[in-house]
Known about the structure:
It is a single chain. With 139 residues, the protein is mainly beta. It has a domain of 96 residues. It is 14% helix and 40% strand. It contains two helices and ten strands. The chain has a six-stranded antiparallel beta sheet with strand order 1-2-8-7-9-10, covered by helices on one side. A two-stranded antiparallel sheet has the order 3-6. The longest helix is centred in the C-terminal third of the chain and has 11 residues. The chain is elongated and about 70 Å long.
Amino acid sequence: MADDPKARDLTLNYAGGSLTMPVGTLEALFGEDAEILTPVPETSTVSVKSHSRTRVIGSPASNVSGYSYENIQWPTSQANNAAAGEACLFSWEGSSGNWTGRVTGALSALGVFLVANSTKTVVFRSERGTKYGPFKKGT
């Protein structure tokens, strides 16, 4: 039996949390060609100042000249056997019912993320039954 690549979970990290859903569900929500489904690394430049270094106590210090390098950080999440976060039920315009996703972080941060990225009107309900939304890009 072959694995369905659309059934595999994908985690989208955003400021304040993350959203985990199957790839096919995320494609239905954000669109198959959505840039958000393609991870992009963050590049930062690290500068090290010149300084003196003593390898062995009592030995003379040597000077280390300053330099800089680029650090590339790909999106990551914590690896654990336990499911992270809170299960939420999602529905959006055109969806056929409710879909489950796991959310870490504040649910208000998820709302901000959905307003910034979702082209469809999305509502979701927390485990406690609190309803959030509607959220849509540009509203």
